[in-house]
């Protein structure tokens, strides 16, 4: 158990997606240029990132009707998405978004 926890922690620290993450996309009308994602799983939480409809993401957690997503942006390469290698040095931006805004690729 300790070895698995240590291995998962090491992967997270390297920027690789946690084993529990799955691939998905942002849902939405292509006419929508950006959709806000939040710091916390709440409608009143501070908006911290904008994502585009169709953008590839990692789905990494859930709390009620909110999904924790990891994604690439200007500062984060986020390996493991869209054929990008999930090697060392790869980091992901992280935010919460309403479940209705997600398409799972499972």
Question: Features of this protein?
Answer:
two-stranded antiparallel ribbon; single chain; SH3 type barrels; mainly beta; five-stranded antiparallel β-sheet; 106 residues
Folded structure, characterized:
The protein has 106 residues and is mainly beta. The protein has a single domain (2-104), classed as SH3 type barrels. Helix content is 12%, strand content 35%. It has one helix and seven strands. The chain has one helix at 2-14; strands spanning 22-26, 35-38, 47-51, 56-63, 66-71, 93-98, 102-104. Strands 6-5-4-1-7 form a five-stranded antiparallel beta sheet, with no helix packed on it. Strand 2 and strand 3 (47-51) form a beta hairpin. The longest helix has 13 residues, at 2-14. The radius of gyration is 14 Å and the shape is globular. Residues 1-14 have low confidence and may be disordered.
């Amino acid at each position: 158990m300790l070895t698995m926890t240590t291995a998962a922690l090491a992967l997270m620290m390297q920027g690789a997606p946690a084993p529990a993450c799955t691939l998905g996309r942002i849902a939405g009308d292509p006419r929508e240029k950006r959709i806000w994602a939040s710091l916390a799983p709440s409608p009143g939480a501070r908006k911290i990132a904008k994502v585009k409809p169709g953008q590839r993401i990692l789905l990494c957690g859930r709390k009620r009707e909110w999904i924790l997503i990891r994604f690439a942006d200007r500062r984060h390469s986020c390996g493991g998405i869209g054929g990008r290698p999930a090697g060392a040095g790869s980091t992901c931006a992280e935010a919460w978004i309403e479940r209705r805004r997600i398409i799972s690729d499972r």
